[in-house]
Each structure stands twice: as C-alpha cells, then as structure tokens.
Amino acid sequence: MIEIRGLSHRFGGEVFAVQNIDISIAAGEFVSIVGPSGCGKTTVLNIVAGLLPTEQGEVAINGTPPRAGRHDVAYMLARDSLFPWCTALTNTEFGAEIRAEPAESRRRKALALLEAVGLKGFEDKLPKALSHGMRQRVALARTFCLDSQILLMDEPFGALDAQTKLQLEDVLLQLWASMRRTVIFITHDLAEAVVLSDRVLVMSARPGRVVADISIPLKRPRSVSDLQRDPHYHELYAEVWEKLEEGMTGMNTRSISLA
Which of the 8 DSSP states describes residue 208? Predict the structure, then answer.
C-alpha cells in the first residue's frame, strides 16, 4: 500500500530532516512511528500526504506518486481543526461533502461514527460547547467518515489528558478493527504505539533514520486496560524504549534518566 525507498529531505537546502528512509506498509496494517522531537516523523507523513515534495528517493501510494487531495488518503492533525460555526454532525461530514458524497449516505455514516466515538446526543452541539476531548472525538469521526483507505495521524491524542487519551485509544482500536484501514500513526507516547500497532518504527535523532522495525504480535482485539496486565506488552514497551535510547545517542541525552 505504501512504499518508501531511500527517502531524504532537506529544509532550506541545508538541514537534513530525514535521510535514507526505507518503509514498506501493507494494506490494512497499523504502523506507528516514534522518535525524538525534530527527527522528521511529521516530515515523512507530509511527504506521503503529498504536502511536501519527494526530493530524493521514491515514494509510492497504491503504486502512484503522492499528491495532495487524493481521496484514498485522509490526514488527522494533533489539533481538532473543527469549524466553530458547524455542529459536531456537520463537522463530521464536511470532508465527505467536499468529496461530493451524496447527502443521505454521508449523513448516515456521520451519525453512526459519532455514536461509535461516544457522542450520541451531541450531534447538534457547536465546538464551543464541547470539551477538548469531545472535539477530538469529532475529528476522529470526521477522519473515518472520509472512507479513505489510508489514514495519516499526526499525534492526534498528544494534547489530551491521560484518561481521555486512553479512552480514545480504545475507540480508535474499535474503529480500526471494524474498518481495517492502513494507518501511519505518529506519537511520542511509546505505550500508545505498542497498544495500537502491528509494527513500531523507531527513528533516530536528526537526520532521522529508521533504526528499528519492531513487530507487535499482541493478539487482537485489544483493550488498553487489559494490556497493562500483560507481561508481553511490557517486554515490547521495554524493547521500543531501548531502541529509542540507542537512536538518541547523538543528542547528548545519555546522562538524562529515562526511567
């Protein structure tokens, strides 16, 4: 579904953001990318989305070069980016409307998705009447309402409190299990990466390189709370931590406790 070979990208012609990135993602696979701040995680996502040019290397989405606006790719940002004058329902169906999906079918999907994310009864509320976590639930519903095969998610739960984040991780697991989209998920939360993913890619400090590709063979369906009691989950978490530390050796952080 997604093939990246020898990808390198500079900003301003001087600063390497990423260098010699190789990533292959199969259809229906959930892959998280973790790494230190500034290592180029979002740069990779933006190139796949067609928002940045492919300067060096090759990128193919379903066998074709990336480009902005393609219907088989949806992008969910860290902020909810809801229109303040639109209700939860009209925000949810907005992307499908832009893509000219018939009103009846997009409204039916949007209502079902709002119920799935726990917002039944809030369909007619404006964003100002919703908590931050509720707004991010709307953004999640909007992303799935697009029916795109590929979902690019850039730290979508990063600004949420711990309890809300755990709840939305469970919601995402349920939506993904029912619709089986191909996902690239950017996060700084290693626990989140292990809970959600089929694989976790670990990037080094800038210039970002993939230093580890860790399979997460935890059984599905998964529950965030149940996994906290699973020794295998903690072993995988420790493995991701170890590879992240190795990739950070160039950042002069070895003296900082990572416990």
Answer: B
How far, in Å, CA of 72 to CA of 59, rounded? 15
Calculate the dihedral angle through the C-alpha atoms of 47, 48, 51, 55, rounding to the nearest 10 degrees.
30
User: Are 142 and 159 contained in the same domain?
Assistant: no
Starting at the edge strand found earlier in the chain, the sheet holding 56-61 runs 15-25, 2-11, 56-61
Question: Rounded to whole angstroms, how far apart are CA atoms 63 and 68?
Answer: 15
Domain hosting 232: range is 1-72+148-259
CATH number, domain with residue 245: 3.40.50.300
**What's the rounded Cα separation, in Å, for the pair 205 and 35?**
7
Residue 141 in tokens: 């519903």
Identify whether residues 58 and 98 lie together within a single domain.
Answer: no
Same-domain status, 109 and 182 = no
CB 259 within 8 A of CB 51: no
Distance CA 169, CA 113 (A): 15
Residues 84 and 199 occupy one common structural domain: no
Which pLDDT tens digit goes with each residue over 199-246?
A: 999 999 988 999 999 999 999 999 999 999 999 999 999 999 999 998
- The pLDDT, as a whole number, for residue 14 is 76
* Longest CA span, the chain: 59
How many residues does the structure list for the chain?
259
Q: Do 191 and 255 belong together in one domain?
A: yes
CA–CA dist 210, 54 (Å, integer): 17
- Picking from 244, 210, 250, 251, the residue whose alpha carbon sits closest to that of residue 19 is 210
